[in-house]
Amino acid sequence: MTIIFFKVVFIVFIVIALFGFFFTRKFLDIQYRFFSWYYKLAGIEAQFKTKSPAVIKTTSLIGIVFLCFFYFAAMEDFEKKNQNAAAAATEGQKTEVTETINLEDPDMKTVYDFLKKCETYYLATVENDQPRVRPFGTIDLFEDKLYIQTGKVKNVSKQMAKNPKVEICAFDGNTWIRIEATVVNDDRIEAKQHMLDNYPSLRQMYKADDNNTQVLYLKDATATFYSFGKEPKVVKF
Q1: Distances in whole angstroms, Cα of residue 203 to Cα of each of 121, 136, 192, 209, 217
Q2: Domain end point (choices 100, 127, 155)
Q3: Residues 119 and 191 in one domain
Q4: Residue 179's domain spans which residues?
């Protein structure tokens, strides 16, 4: 809001300055019409009427140059502040997530935190004898179970219905995870709503009672964390 107000004020002053530069005599006439009472009261009416148009042009030109310099300097300052704020917010989010992940003694919550940190993971299914893989982004903890989400109309849902054995893989730049599990469909409204509450953007496409939204939890899962130079860490849940 502040930057919009600043731009509006800048445009108004630029228009006034340009008008004064290109239409000097008209500018003087308008100025006199609005402030004639003041000039008469101050006894400077005669001086105003004899004011040189060249003075107005010069003043307007100086004003335009000053306004442009001030505008671009202020915009650069706004941009730097926005970049610093965004960088600080991003760094704070990364620090918060990193602090909660303990790869030395991992558990199901560690798996959840890691997948949330990665934001995108890859889910592999099987269609007849053909492997299928695609990026996923939803992961949720509900009633001590790890849930994923999709739509029943999608091929991935149909593949998991025929063969519920899946694998998940994700990489954060240093460590990667592989999860093998069996997915179990949970058709309860509460489970679906919990997922949608944690991913508000999904509400544009899904509703808990729309007969399309599907959430599934991982059963008999084995998650293995890998990183170069370290022994793998295994979690079963």
Answers
A1: 21, 16, 11, 11, 20
A2: 100
A3: yes
A4: 108-236
Residue 15 has pLDDT above 90, yes or no: no
Q: Report the b/e string of 70-109 with b at 16+ CB within 10 A.
A: ebeeeeeeeeeeeeeeeeeeeeeeeeeeeeebeeeebebb
Answer with the one of 31, 66, 100 that is the final residue of a domain: 100
One DSSP character per residue, 5-30 reads: HHHHHHHHHHHHHHHHHHSHHHHHHH
Cβ neighbourhood burial of 179 (10 Å; 0-12, 13-18, 19+): buried
DSSP string for residues in 35-53: HHHHHHHHT-HHHHHT--H
Do 7 and 86 have their domain in common? yes
By CB atoms closer than 10 A (0-12, 13-18, 19+), residue 143 is exposed
- Band the pLDDT of 142: cuts 50, 70, 90: very high
How many independent structural domains does the chain possess? 2
Positive or negative, the Cα torsion across 195, 200, 204, 207? positive
CA nearest to 185, candidates 210, 148, 222, 154 = 148
Q: Are residues 83 and 191 in the same domain?
A: no
Asked if the model's pLDDT at residue 44 lies above 50, the reply is no
Whether 74 and 149 map to the same domain: the answer is no
Q: What is the pLDDT of residue 102?
A: 73
Q: How far apart are CA 40 and CA 165, in angstroms?
A: 92
Dist CA 139 CA 147 (whole Å)? 6
